[in-house]
Design brief:
Elements (H helix, E strand, L loop, with lengths): L2 H7 L40 H14 L3 E5 L2 H12 L5 E5 L4 H11 L5 E5 L4 H7 L4 E7 L11 H10 L3 E5 L4 H4 L9 E5 L13 E5 L2 H14 L5 H11 L2 H20 L4 E5 L9 H7 L7 E5 L3 H9 L5 E2 L9 E3 L11 H6 L6 E5 L5 H14 L6 H6 L3
Parallel strand pairs: 2-3, 2-4, 4-5, 5-6, 10-11
Antiparallel strand pairs: 1-7, 6-7, 8-9, 9-12, 11-12
Bound molecules: pyridoxal-5'-phosphate (PLP).
Length: about 400
């Protein structure tokens, strides 16, 4: 079965009782038992639920894994992995520009209990190698990253990590399994904020962990029930519905992203565009080698002030100002004040996350309308003000 067929047919037969081609939502807390402890494989919906199970089967298959647990959020999924594999005294090695919520969980939840968080530039493979020690249990990366869309060499990093006995977790939220399959590149666990492209409609919060090896996956799967961060059956059903158009949506998102990146790169008020599909992007060659498309996200640095960046993001016609990404409706975000506000300003600046960095999640609206909306917004800023004008204005 090809990818698009799997999203519609895999693990999704017609309902055996009624013939309904769309599976019912098993909106139930518990399951009537034939005798004490005798059931049809389901006893309580935190432990297992037929709608969730269906979704877990599809996600495992799309990623090329064997096991999946779906959680109530991407961060709940991350928590289960960290709880299972990062014990006090152990180390985790992560890139410098990891998602803000992951950064917060590592530094505010796991560091205080004695876990060691080591940040390193994952583009520098020898630095990664030097940073991993015998105490490193996890090497964790996103690629492309949020929000600068840096691309890391997953295969090379997995090789280094495995040689030192660490497990590799890849957050595949931005690429989706349609454009990138981390297990083929050596990942041990794949993580998703399902909230984003997989569900795809900005109408739910959900996460998933997918594994290939039973022994590696089992401690995480156990924690879904033991910690209890489960999704609702309705949200699982919505994700199953969203997945059916994943291929179509990703194709459209990716096509629009190319046009948006090109239009931005040609505008005088844009200092830099971050999009792995542009030939001058530092990760372009790696993206070409390990992805089958460049994804749908584009970030750029405005050549201007924070106030101008705020004016731009507030006044778009089609790009709603909001957190999140990957939905059918376009979104725009100013990471320094939104998604990455939990990272201290000095750290943000050291990581190259400037205050005028703007992140775009083009939706599946008309490409022309979206590009025009962005260009109108940049044109409206006028010419860049000279330094003495900025000083006079107190900026
Ligand atoms: C790359 C990435 N990973 C994980 C998360 C966390 O997922 P959630 O918001 O579903 O908890 C996000 C959320 O923005 C994300 O962008």
């Amino acid at each position: 079965m090809d990818f698009a067929t799997k999203t519609i047919h895999f693990n999704q037969p017609a309902d055996p009782v009624t013939g309904a081609v769309v599976s019912p939502i098993y909106q139930t807390t518990t399951f009537q038992q034939e005798g004490p402890g005798v059931n049809k494989g389901f006893d309580y919906s935190r432990t297992n639920n037929p709608t969730r199970k269906r979704l877990e089967g599809v996600l495992a298959e799309l990623e090329g894994g064997s096991y999946c647990s779906v959680f109530g959020s991407g961060l709940a999924a991350e928590h289960a992995i960290l709880q299972a594999y990062l014990k006090p005294g152990q180390e985790i090695v992560v890139p410098q520009d990891v998602y803000g919520g992951t950064f917060r969980m590592l530094h505010k939840v796991f560091e205080p209990i004695g876990c060691v968080v080591k940040n390193v530039d994952f583009a520098d493979l020898s630095a990664v190698e030097r940073t991993i020690t015998e105490k490193t249990s996890l090497v964790w990366l996103e690629s492309p990253t949020n929000p600068r869309l840096l691309v890391y060499d997953i295969r090379a990093i997995a090789k280094i990590a495995h040689a030192k006995g660490a497990l590799v977790v890849v957050d595949n939220t931005f690429a989706t399994p349609y454009f990138q399959r981390p297990f083929d590149l050596g990942a041990d666990l794949v993580l998703h904020s399902v909230t984003k492209y997989l569900a795809g409609h900005s109408d739910l919060i959900q996460g998933a962990v997918i594994g290939k090896d039973a022994a590696v996956f089992e401690p995480v799967g156990f924690l879904l029930n033991a910690l209890g961060g489960v999704p609702s059956a309705f949200d699982c059903w919505l994700t199953l519905r969203g997945l059916k158009t994943l291929e179509l949506r990703m194709e459209r998102h990716a096509q629009t992203a190319v046009r948006v990146a090109e239009a931005l790169a040609a505008h005088p008020r844009v200092k830099q565009v971050y999009f792995p599909g542009l030939p001058d992007h530092p990760g372009h060659a790696i993206a070409r080698a390990q992805m089958t498309g460049f994804g749908g996200m584009v970030s750029f640095e405005l050549d201007g002030t924070l106030e101008e960046a705020e004016q731009f993001v507030k006044s778009r016609k089609y790009f709603a100002l909001g957190e999140s990404l990957g939905g059918v409706r376009a979104l725009v975000c100013l990471p320094c004040k939104m998604t990455h506000a939990s990272i201290p300003a000095e750290t943000r600046h050291a990581l190259g996350l400037s205050d005028t960095l703007i992140r775009l999640s083009p939706g599946i609206e008309s490409t022309r309308d979206l590009v025009q909306d962005l260009i109108e917004g940049l044109d409206a800023l006028g010419e860049k003000k000279a330094n003495d004008e900025l000083v006079a204005a107190g900026l």
